[in-house]
Hints:
Elements: E1 21-26, E2 31-35, E3 41-44, H1 49-61, H2 83-98, E4 103-107, H3 113-120, E5 124-129, H4 132-142, E6 146-148, E7 162-168, H5 177-186, E8 188-199, H6 204-212, H7 218-227, E9 234-235, H8 238-247, E10 251-258, H9 269-285, E11 290-296
Parallel strand pairs: 4-5, 4-7, 5-6, 7-8
Antiparallel strand pairs: 1-2, 2-3, 3-9, 8-11, 10-11
Amino acid sequence: xxxxxxxxxxxxxxxxxxxxxxxxxxxxxxxxxxxxxxxxxxxxxxxxxxxxxxxxxxxxxxxxxxxxxxxxxxxxxxxxxxxxxxxxxxxxxxxxxxxxxxxxxxxxxxxxxxxxxxxxxxxxxxxxxxxxxxxxxxxxxxxxxxxxxxxxxxxxxxxxxxxxxxxxxxxxxxxxxxxxxxxxxxxxxxxxxxxxxxxxxxxxxxxxxxxxxxxxxxxxxxxxxxxxxxxxxxxxxxxxxxxxxxxxxxxxxxxxxxxxxxxxxxxxxxxxxxxxxxxxxxxxxxxxxxxxxxxxx
Length: 297
């Protein structure tokens, strides 16, 4: 996928607007930049709306890389041993402690598993996703109320307010995170909460990829280009994600880190073992590859 920029302006940070940056990787037609001010990592040039839409459809139709072909597969909601179901329940328990209301908006709902678990726990759920395939699966499989749109959805949610909004694995795909989080804040009831989970650049995984990426070995360069691809517009860290919430007038309540669920990935035996070791080391040193934040309006 070859990204494009609609104008020739010099790149600027997608959170703080600073033009002071480091180039951390020069890749196949795009660069990964790191803001010297707020430390956000972001792609330049930005991908077009069409490129992001195509990437979303590929992810949900099975046309993406073999490693993630079953990432969005349907889950049995009553299987308490399923790590994805357990993760959904753990996240919802935390959100439920922060708000007494039970209306929820799932932005970037994917195939709908999280929204379906929330619905089963008694939440009144509205789900939306930019992928036509994803919203159809969520509606047909989990019987969810879904909207197909690219967030912010302008007039589609006018007048609605929610006690909780979640953005799971979606904020990193949005070219204007400030606009998206601010729009989410406007959809919250007073005292409502926003939960975001996204890749963490301040992690052992990224440090390893960044270090190995200096080697001009085809297999390693392929890995580098796979992780840092234009569809992943941003890579946050605890600091930059917190700054984003504050800039959008949301007050961080708690934050933390977590690891990817290997059950979702199709990896060779050797690669799976390497990733498992990396995850365990990351947990021990608290440098996991995912960062989350819970913030209140």
